[in-house]
Amino acid sequence: MCEFVNYGLQMGKQSICFEKPVYIMSSACIVGPKEGEGPLKDTFDKIVEDATFGKDSWEEGESEMLKETVLLAIDKAKLKPTDIRYLFAGDLLGQLIATTFGVKDINIPLFGLYGACSTMGEALALGAMTIHGGYANAVVTAVSSHFGGAEKQFRFPLEYGNQRPMSSTWTVTGSGALVLSKDFGDVMITGITTGKVVDYGVKDSLNMGACMAPAAADLIYQHLKDFDRTTDYYDRIVTGDLGVVGSEILCKLLNDQGVDISKVHMDCGMAIYDDERQDTHAGGSGCACSAVTLAGKLLNEIKFGETERILFVPTGALLSTVSFNEGQSVPGIAHGIVIERRVQTVD
């Protein structure tokens, strides 16, 4: 927890420390068939064998998946949709169509967000700030992504059968949702660090790890500086979807600044698939990559005392088909969320 002396809530250049923690009341995660065959299969709430989720298209299926995940998270918190003040949600599709069509019938006021694969970090930060500021008692943060929809929009139609380079990652088909509240829970958010857009001029749209690693390094370095912490303050520093390539770049960039995260670093993109068995090359990516890993594996470990404290750093490549086709680079962004196990007190 933070100590408040003279600097109040604002910490350093980019961070906030909450005087009163915001609690994670529940989480839910639903994934597609490939994710259900991976190493984290036992941590997901639901594995769906049909990648279209019973709909006529990947996009409609993603909307249905997001809707089911949001409703499941609310139900697990023993709440009703009418108890939720705001929904902070986003996806990778143009104009956030997976989100908007998915939640239109739930009737919760919506903040539609886009931070590419870092969107869950953005949602958690804004949701926690909203609750801490007294503007809501409970909010939902949610994201989704879909392999078929992402490939169709950003790269090649799957029917094209193009060869993927070894630096490429596999977009996770899944959705993760969390209910945040001012009421007590087993897991709490105690601080955030908001990331900046960082652009090292990388133009390879099939190497997302290289695009995002500089933003992750910038965020982690600034977070530690803002809070005056060292890496051993955390049991884990968890990046979103850098994969093998991006993780190597991240560690080198931080080492160049005198920061060694090798003992505590975990990347969701490297955890969610078994490349040797599933042929995903550099690992996983997409909004859902970090979200379903957090909603399942990571929060369960914190809840049951296996892990006490993590810095959750979802990463995003701000890739646009318009800017890419005009020869622009792919900037990156990352956001940091401090997630801790609530200290149990005895009266």
Give the SSE layout.
Elements: E1 10-11, E2 15-31, E3 46-47, H1 58-76, E4 86-90, H2 97-103, E5 110-112, H3 119-132, E6 138-145, H4 147-154, E7 170-171, E8 174-181, E9 187-193, H5 208-227, E10 236-239, H6 243-255, E11 265-267, H7 268-271, H8 275-278, E12 284-285, H9 287-303, E13 309-313, E14 315-317, H10 321-325, E15 332-334, E16 336-341
Parallel strand pairs: 2-3, 4-5, 4-6, 7-12, 10-11, 10-13
Antiparallel strand pairs: 1-2, 2-8, 2-9, 6-8, 9-16, 13-16, 14-15
Helix pairs in contact: 1-2, 5-6
Structure at a glance:
By secondary structure, the protein is α/β, with parallel strands linked by helices.
For the structure shown, list the relevant keywords.
2 domains, 347 residues, alpha/beta, 12-stranded mixed sheet, Peroxisomal Thiolase, Chain A, domain 1
